[in-house]
Design a protein that fits this description.
This protein is α+β, with helices and mostly antiparallel strands. It is built from 7 helices and 8 strands; from the N terminus they run αααββαββββααββα. It has one domain. The strands form 2 sheets. It has a 6-stranded antiparallel beta sheet with strand order 2-1-3-4-5-6.
Length: 248
C-alpha cells in the first residue's frame, strides 16, 4: 500500500484511534473499582468529620478500609426519606456492603422540582444525625455535611468541600477550620420557611441561627448559604420528628 496515499492515512488514523480508545476504556474499567472506593471513603471521612467521630486529621490519615470500619462501628442506621419526612428506603451499613447516597446533584434537582427526592439520613450511635447539603459556588459545586444533635436543631459539627473555588478565598470553606467550627452550637430554625440558617456578611453576632461569611468570598458564601437553606428546608419535615420525639 502506498504510505503516502490518502487511503493509507485514513486507515492508519482509524486504527490508532480505535487502539487508543480500547486502551482508555480498558484502563477506565480497571480503575473504576479503586475510584469508587476512594469516593466512598472520602464521603465517609467528611460525614464522620462533621459528626466528630474522630479528628479530621486522623480520618484522613486512615486507609480506605479503616475508614469503612470506623463508619460501620459507629453508625446506628442509615436510610432515605422523602420530602414529607417519611422513611422510604434503607441503606446498608455493613463494612463490606456500605450504601450511600453520594450523588447529590440529582437529589438537588429533585428537591427543587418538589418531587422524587430520596434524601439520605445517617444516624450515629452517639445520637448525632448527619445530613448533606449541595449547591453552586462561584466556579462549581459546593457541598458538605451538617451533624445535628438528637433534637434535630442544634448543630454538632460541619464539614464542607468544593470542586473549584478560589484558593485562599472560597476554598476556605474547606481549608479553614474556624469557618466550620463556628457552626457548632448554632441552631437551625425549623419554623423559618425557606431560610432556616444564614451565612451573613458583616458579622453574625449572637444570633443563634447565623455564622460569619468568608471575607472576600461573597459568591461562595452565598452559594453555600443557599445550599444549606434548600437542603435543610427539604429535611425540615423529618427533623421535626426528631424535635417532637425529644420533647415527649
Amino acid at each position: 500500500m502506498n504510505t503516502n496515499s490518502n487511503v493509507y492515512t485514513v486507515i492508519y488514523t482509524t486504527i490508532v484511534v480505535v487502539v487508543v480508545a480500547a486502551v482508555l476504556a480498558f484502563t477506565a474499567t480497571r480503575l473504576r473499582p479503586a475510584q469508587d472506593a476512594n469516593a466512598k471513603a472520602e464521603t465517609l471521612r467528611q460525614m464522620m468529620a462533621a459528626a466528630q467521630i474522630k479528628p479530621t486529621g486522623e480520618l484522613y490519615a486512615a486507609r480506605n478500609a479503616e475508614v469503612l470500619g470506623i463508619y460501620s462501628d459507629n453508625i446506628a442506621e442509615a436510610f432515605t426519606v422523602d420530602l414529607q419526612g417519611r422513611k422510604v428506603g434503607e441503606l446498608s451499613t455493613a463494612s463490606g456492603k456500605i450504601e450511600l447516597v453520594d450523588k447529590l446533584k440529582p437529589q438537588n434537582t429533585a428537591i427543587k422540582a418538589g418531587e422524587g427526592a430520596t434524601l439520605p439520613v445517617y444516624r450515629f450511635k452517639s445520637g448525632i444525625t448527619v445530613v448533606p447539603v449541595y449547591g453552586a459556588g462561584l466556579w462549581g459545586p459546593v457541598w458538605g455535611y451538617l451533624a445535628l444533635q438528637s433534637d434535630g436543631r442544634t448543630i454538632a459539627g460541619a464539614y464542607f468541600d468544593h470542586e473549584g473555588e478560589t484558593p485562599g478565598l472560597g476554598a476556605k470553606i474547606k481549608d479553614e477550620p474556624w469557618f466550620r467550627e463556628q457552626f457548632v452550637g448554632k441552631v437551625i430554625d425549623l419554623d423559618a420557611s425557606g431560610n432556616p440558617f444564614d451565612i451573613v456578611k458583616g458579622g453574625a453576632g449572637d444570633d443563634a441561627s447565623k455564622v460569619d461569611a468568608i471575607t472576600g468570598a461573597t459568591m461562595t458564601s452565598k452559594g453555600l448559604d443557599q445550599a444549606i437553606d434548600v437542603w435543610i428546608s427539604a429535611y425540615v419535615p423529618y427533623l421535626r420528628t426528631l424535635t417532637n420525639s425529644e420533647e415527649e
